[in-house]
Amino acid sequence: MALAERDNCKDFIGIYYCGDWKLMNHFQVETHDLHDLKWSNDDSAIICWDNPTECRLLVYSPTQGLIAKHEPYSAALGYRNANFSPNGSFLVAGACD
Fold first, then answer.
1. Number of separate domains in the chain
2. What are the helix (H) ranges across 2-59?
């Protein structure tokens, strides 16, 4: 399970094993106000995006940290949703514009 957390005005993701709810990994994410997150179909990546006023999409490995970052412009409306394709090869994201 991936859990979005906030501590001292910083966003984190906690990765928990659901068998005994043991914390497997915990890392800070590069967001101002994390809006949402989703697992990839094969559990190899987590996508998360910033609040609707920041156009920032991030892809993290649950064990190794940041894989990719997409921030096409600043001072504009951001992402509303994101999802992986059924085969996991593509990522689709919908922005407010």
1. 1
2. none
